[in-house]
Amino acid sequence: MILCSNPKAQVDAHRKEIEAAIVGVLDSGWYILGQEVSRFEERFAAYIGVDHGIGVASGTDALTIALATCGVGLEDEVITVSHTAVATAAAIALVGAKPIFVDIKPDTFLMDTSQIEAAITPCTKAIVPVHIYGQAVEMDEILRIARAHGLRVVEDCAQAHGATYRGRRVGTFGDASCFSFYPTKNLGAIGDGGIVVTDDADLAEQLRHGREYGWVDRYVSHFRGWNSRLDEMQAAILSAKIGHLDADNDRRRGIASYYDEGLAGTDLVLPARATEAEHVFHLYVARSKRRDELLQHLREGEVGAAIHYPVPVHRQPAYRSSEAADLPETERATEEIISLPVYPELADDQVEQVVCRIRAFS
Ligand SMILES: *Cc1c(COP(=O)(O)O)cnc(C)c1O
Predict the structure, then answer these.
(1) Which of 76, 125, 131, 152 is most exposed by smallest CB count within 10 Å?
(2) Are 338 and 3 in contact (CB under 8 A)?
(3) CB distance 134 to ligand 1 below 6 Å
(4) Spacing, Cα 57 to ligand 1 middle (Å)
(5) Residue 171 CB: number of other CB atoms within 10 A?
(6) 181: CA distance to ligand 1 center in Å?
């Protein structure tokens, strides 16, 4: 069986370094917010190209705490997309705000920035662009609109570690930017983890307090915060793995090119590259008019393709009240998308096998 994603293969690829990292933490006697977390925060912030990194317990927490710290709260509206992991909307709802969904562009699946201004109301407080599948949203447009209307920008970079827009990494554009280290992400932990990055020193300090009960001095909360800490074990593992991220992203792009060539001429619509953006292929998502049949055909051929995501957020029971969402491209994408296996450890012959299996479908 060729899995659609395979975090175990990644562990096996770097097993010695990961084991050494774990043993180091076991022996240190310090398990929460210590040297390993500080070291990783610095290293990750430097990699992205920002001044501050604040490790937290998950990508969802990163978004929640970043939104709250940027002043988003009750009755505010936050403009984002429905075509995303539910976590994006969950974080907006968790701070008491309302997600307002705009549609996506059919070729790249990215937020259609031309729809943002019409969605702005007096209650709009922020925009959350999602760099879905590993490709950057047009950040020039997002920043122009945000400046013109006095909105905050919180980037959802959970699928785009290392992706760039006009030569700058995603995560350097927003007031705050959020990453997840869920095991299957381009940089994954062995458990949950996340980080908020920012260039704003005051915001960084608030985030640091916020992730631990609003403590400014230990045991004394100056505001009501969270308990959301990246632990030493995950931080040490992430430090061991971050050095491989660029090579891993290169390999993902290589697999994507192979799919592009191998699947040319089939009736699949292959993923478009946005201009000015370097894709890191967290997922390779194609479109098929006969998606469900194709999925079945692949599974019968031991190829684990998947759908990211099968139900758009505005159609999910918990978020349906985001009424009046007129999102035809989001809905059409939901019917047609299929994610093919892509991860650094996928071997050439496996990629070839996926291609042949798809070519045999007609
Ligand atoms: C994975 C993901 C998240 C949430 O991250 P967790 O670490 O699972 O909480 C948020 N947004 C997007 C787009 C994601 O893919």
Answers:
(1) 76
(2) no
(3) no
(4) 12
(5) 29
(6) 8
Task: Using 50 as the pLDDT threshold, list the residues of the chain that sit under it.
Answer: none
Angle between helices 348-359 and 291-300 (to 10 degrees): 130
DSSP E strand stretches across the chain: 52-56, 77-81, 98-102, 124-127, 152-156, 164-165, 168-169, 176-180, 194-198, 215-217, 220-221, 277-278, 284-287, 337-340
Does the beta carbon of 64 lie inside 6 Å of ligand 1?
Answer: no
pLDDT tens digits, one per residue of 132-145: 999 999 999 999 99
**Tens digits of residue pLDDT in 69-86:** 999 999 999 999 999 999
Alpha helices in 243-321 (DSSP H): 245-262, 291-300
Region of residue 134 (left: phi > 0; alpha: psi -120 to 50; beta: else): left
Residue 322 is predicted with a pLDDT of 57
Q: Would you say how long the chain is, in residues?
A: 362
Q: Which atom of ligand 1 is nearest to the CA of 159?
A: 15
The structure tokens listed for 106 are 């059919």
Query: Under DSSP, is residue 338 helix (H, G, I), strand (E, B) or coil?
Result: strand
State pLDDT tens for residues 10-48: 999 999 999 999 999 999 999 999 999 999 999 999 999
pTM of structure? 0.98
Cα 67 to middle of ligand 1, angstroms: 15
